[in-house]
């Protein structure tokens, strides 16, 4: 029981960190800064998918959404 409780807490923290990074990219209006942050979020999402915290399709959907946002930025 203790192991699963610890894993649940750890997984919650990782998902929260991932959602916060996603929101950070979506809030940026400067394209060069957003591209740097996008690379960091991509690495984080790939790691989450590898570890099984996110399904690969979920990761792909989030990455596509973030890419569209950064691509639409000016400058």
Brief write-up:
The chain is 85% helix and 0% strand. The chain has 75 residues and is mostly helical. It is elongated.
Describe what you observe in this structure.
This protein has 75 residues and is an all-alpha fold. The chain has a single domain, classed as Ribosomal protein S20 (Methane Monooxygenase Hydroxylase, Chain G, domain 1), CATH 1.20.58.110. The protein has helices at residues 2-27, 31-51, 56-72. Helix 1 (2-27) runs antiparallel to helix 2 and helix 2 runs antiparallel to helix 3. The longest helix is centred in the first third of the chain and has 26 residues, at 2-27. The model has no long low-confidence stretch (mean pLDDT 95).
Topology:
Blueprint: H1 2-27, H2 31-51, H3 56-72
Helix pairs in contact: 1-2, 2-3
Question: How many helix segments?
Answer: 3
Radius of gyration: 14 Å
The share of residues in helices is over 70%
Which spans have pLDDT < 50 for at least 5 consecutive residues? none
Note the overall shape: elongated
Class per helix and strand makeup = mainly alpha
By CATH, the topology is Methane Monooxygenase Hydroxylase, Chain G, domain 1
**Main beta sheet: strand number and arrangement?**
none
Q: Per DSSP, what share of the residues sits in E-state strands of 2 or more residues?
A: under 5%
- Which architecture does the CATH hierarchy give at level 2? Up-down Bundle
Quickly count the domains.
1
H and E string: HHH
Kindly report the average pLDDT value: 95
Roughly how many Å apart are the termini?
52 Å
Question: How many beta-strand elements?
Answer: 0
CATH class: Mainly Alpha
Classified in CATH, the superfamily is Ribosomal protein S20
């Amino acid at each position: 029981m203790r192991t699963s409780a610890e894993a649940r807490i750890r997984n919650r923290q990782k998902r929260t960190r991932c959602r916060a990074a996603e929101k950070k990219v979506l809030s940026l209006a400067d394209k060069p800064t957003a591209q740097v942050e996008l690379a960091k979020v991509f690495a984080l999402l790939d790691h989450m998918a590898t570890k099984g915290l996110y399904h690969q399709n979920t990761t792909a959907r989030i990455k596509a959404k973030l890419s569209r946002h950064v691509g639409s930025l000016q400058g």
